[in-house]
Amino acid sequence: MFRFLARLVGFLLIAAGFVGLVVDGTRSIANTAVMFMPLGELLFAAFPKTFPLIEPAVTRHIHPFLWNPILLNLFTLPASLLAFGLGVLLLWAGRKPVEPIGYLARR
Predict the structure, then answer these.
(1) pTM score of the predicted model
(2) What backbone phi and psi angles, to 5 degrees, belong to 103?
(3) Which of 6, 22, 59, 105 could share a disulfide with 64, CB 3.0–4.6 Å?
């Protein structure tokens, strides 16, 4: 059941990454410059009230080092490429195990 969910979410993330790449491509063509939507901009558009609360929560409850170099750099990466990467990782995690050679008689 977990493998099925991992593969389903992986395929959905790859599809979302492809759609994001098409949207970024059309935006780049319209502006005559290469433009990607950063993850932070996407999250702010999806969660406008809770996204600004991430910085105080991380710096106060976890550690300020996690916010400045790590999360800020993560939020500037292209969202479509991150969706592709996470989708591929979930597809890899949800793959079927390889049949060992020479143990077919145990079934």
Answers:
(1) 0.79
(2) -115, 25
(3) 59
